Input
Amino acid sequence: MSRLNELRMITRVAQMYHVEGLRQADIAEHLRISQATVSRMLKKAQDEEIVRTTVVSPPGTYGALEGALRQHFGLAEVIVVECAEDRDGAIMARIGEAAAHFLETTMQPGEIIGVSSWSETILKMVDNIHPMKAGKAKYVVQTLGGMGDPAVQTHATQLTTRLAKLTGAEPRLLTAPGVSQSREAKLIMLADQYVRETVDLFGKITVAFMGIGSIEPSRMLARSGNVFSSKELADVAEAGAVGDMSLRFFDIAGRPVKTPLDERVIGLTLEEIARIDRVIGLAGGQSKTNAIFGALKTGVLDVLITEKFTAQRLLAMAGLAPALEEFT
Output
């Protein structure tokens, strides 16, 4: 009976704390026991499974989907957002909102933020960020060359400079084209003092926000002039590529697809991305699902922000389709 008496007391303490909302000091005074004893009993209540913790995801959040993606792909965090339509415009808007909140709540003072400035989804993120009064970043670094069509170039420049202003940082623009005409032209541009200063910051980036592209470039990137020709992209696809990050291509298994085109890109390499402490991938949509799957397989992403339709497709591609109902 002594054990039953002990369990009865533990249960009463747990009830007072978890149900009645009493503080440990009040429980100790009421029962004429020490606060240390109350603390031990509350721990015992968990050990004996008298108290069990249940986390219930509110409507519009997808804790089980996020957990399944975290576990399967070895990610630190996954954010799956609610989206009413499986349509690119709506998807980019919702992902952008979630990414803005993530940056606002997790940014540390002195951060050096890398940003792939030709991503429409990242542009949506910047549109949703509130000016930060505390926890200022140090630099916002453009991680892919920006020069191109002047009519479109302003988007990349404004994205970087606006993000810097919102986070209290200094912008570091990459004043060179994303794709040079040749390897020799790239080497000449990298010798420029201002280009070199920005490139030298790549190894100091503490958090990077990366768009994930399919082989077909985004509308913004296509209009910029910072793209390969249709023939070159067809050759990359034939080599097995399904997508890119910062114009660095990979296949469905996450293996880099190396071609001579790499020598013309002025921006982060996959190896450099992998060395960044936190890399956040922003992408969703039917047309990008294979690219996102391949990006996850590269192992360079720490956080994925996507929407529920793509999350379900990714799990299906991972062979978890029979269990999808329990994730939703």
Notes: The chain has two domains: 2-47, 63-327. Strands lie at 77-81, 112-115, 139-142, 170-172, 207-211, 213-214, 241-245, 248-251, 278-282, 303-307. The chain is about 45% helix and 15% strand. The longest strand covers residues 77-81.
